[in-house]
Automatic annotation (TrEMBL):
It comes from Dawidia cretensis. Pfam families: MauE (PF07291). Residues 4-129 form the Methylamine utilisation protein MauE domain. It is a multi-pass membrane protein. The chain crosses the membrane at residues 9-27, 47-66, 73-95, 115-134. It comes from the Bacteria. Keywords: Membrane, Transmembrane, Transmembrane helix. InterPro entries: Methylamine_util_MauE. GO terms for biological process: methylamine metabolic process. It is found in: Membrane. This is Methylamine utilisation protein MauE domain-containing protein. Its main location: membrane. GO terms for cellular component: membrane.
Length: 147
């Protein structure tokens, strides 16, 4: 399999997950915000988070779909997965009540399954960024000849 194909497949996986979850959250913002209000970490900022997170997910998916912005989109997707994973760690370690503000299929996962899902996507994001960066260096020639 070509390395570019691997990057494309990983990109498509991120696009599917982020568009799916972003749209699911946007179509039911009141419920998503209510779930965020149950979080001891996000309670005070639930309204802005309820708007920003799904728009960010969809925006990142769009970036990944644009060839010239793919690397930036993959970086942002991986960064967002780091934030989501840190949230899972914090909420499962320090909260007595563990609310889930996920959408769709992800809502039916246990916290352990969700953590594993996030770690897999973190690894996929790192792999895709690494391959993309290495491949772009090959096609653009030596660093000193780039403009």
């Amino acid at each position: 399999m070509k390395k570019e194909t691997i990057v494309d497949i990983i990109g498509y996986l991120f696009i599917i997950v982020f568009v799916y979850t972003g749209v699911a959250k946007l179509t039911d913002i009141p419920n998503f915000e209510r779930q965020l209000q149950d979080s001891p970490v996000l309670r005070d900022i639930s309204w802005p988070v309820a708007i920003v997170v799904p728009l960010l997910e969809i925006g990142i998916a769009v970036l990944i779909a644009i060839p010239k912005a793919k690397l930036r989109g993959l970086f942002m997707a991986t960064s967002l997965m780091i934030i989501f994973t840190l949230y899972i760690i914090i909420i499962t370690q320090f909260a007595s009540h563990i609310p889930c503000a996920c959408s769709g299929v992800l809502q039916s996962m246990t916290w352990t399954q969700h953590f594993i899902f996030n770690i897999v996507f973190l690894i996929l994001g790192i792999i895709a960024m690494t391959i993309h960066k290495l491949e772009s260096r090959k096609t653009s020639g030596p660093m000193w000849s780039r403009t």
